[in-house]
């Protein structure tokens, strides 16, 4: 079986406390895997390990079969992995389109001198990057189109800032997207729309997606497979129905009689 992303027997300690313990997860190309668990279960730590923010104490991370364990976050991004954050991180004073273009510059070739002097090859590349950014933003329809291109990011609604952060992750050229609570703080209509966005990222753009989410409606709506963590240990894995009714998951996270609710 082809594996896009593999977490192999990873353990991470902070001081004397174990945040992740001997964790293994495999994600196939174009699969959507949700990671659930109570606060402190190790979900965001897992993302930080995959993206190089933390180096694991043991185990390794493989991207398309290549070992990226302990590489710098910028290097791992060039391997095709990008993420969003639980708290939205944008260049708030830059425009919408400039936010996306900034994420694309890591893949440009003109160089600092050519760009500073405005040489023809730099201008051509700048024009291409701008057109690529417009095309990417069109994925989000009217939410990030037209006049919104020139709006500063801080002026966007919360839901549109979330969309812009996903757009920035896409703009890196990543094939694997790690989405950290993309529906957090959204109302039911916005949650439904972001669920559709996640599904389309796979269906229309071919992304492999790992998503951390507390809203079980989102998890149920998009997941091919669900992994449940508790205190850094995998306690269940399978389709949504199996994990949502697993006694260990009900006990540690969902609460008795609340499976399928937020």
TrEMBL record:
InterPro entries: AAA+_ATPase (IPR003593), ABC_AA/LPS_Transport (IPR051120), ABC_transporter-like_ATP-bd (IPR003439), BCA_ABC_TP_C (IPR032823), P-loop_NTPase (IPR027417). CDD domains: ABC_Mj1267_LivG_branched. It comes from the Bacteria. It holds the Pfam family BCA_ABC_TP_C. SMART domains: AAA (SM00382). One of its GO terms (molecular function) is ATP binding. Residues 5-256 form the ABC transporter domain. Keywords: ATP-binding, Nucleotide-binding, Transport. This is ABC transporter ATP-binding protein.
């Amino acid at each position: 079986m082809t594996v896009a992303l593999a977490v192999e027997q990873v353990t991470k300690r902070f001081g004397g406390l174990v945040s992740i313990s001997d964790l293994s997860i495999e994600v196939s190309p174009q699969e959507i895997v949700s990671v659930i668990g109570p606060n402190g279960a190790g979900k965001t730590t897992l993302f930080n390990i995959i993206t190089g923010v933390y180096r694991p104490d043991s185990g390794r991370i493989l991207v398309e079969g290549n070992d990226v364990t302990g590489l710098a976050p910028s290097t791992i991004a060039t391997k095709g992995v990008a993420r969003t954050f639980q708290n939205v991180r944008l260049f708030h004073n830059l425009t919408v389109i400039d936010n996306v273009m900034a994420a694309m510059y890591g893949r440009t070739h003109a160089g600092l001198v050519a760009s500073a002097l405005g040489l023809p090859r730099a201008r051509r590349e700048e024009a291409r990057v701008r057109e690529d950014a417009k095309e990417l933003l069109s994925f989000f329809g009217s939410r990030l189109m037209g006049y919104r291109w020139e709006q500063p990011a801080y002026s966007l609604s919360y839901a549109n800032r979330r969309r812009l952060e996903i757009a920035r992750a896409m703009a890196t050229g990543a094939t694997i997207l790690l989405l950290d609570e993309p529906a957090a703080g959204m109302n039911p209509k916005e949650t439904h729309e972001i669920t559709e966005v996640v599904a389309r990222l796979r269906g229309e753009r071919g992304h492999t997606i790992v998503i951390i989410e507390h809203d079980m409606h989102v998890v149920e709506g998009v997941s091919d497979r669900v992994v449940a963590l508790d205190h850094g240990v995998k306690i269940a894995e399978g389709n949504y129905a199996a994990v949502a009714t697993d006694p260990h998951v009900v006990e540690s996270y969902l609460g008795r009689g609340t499976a399928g609710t937020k």
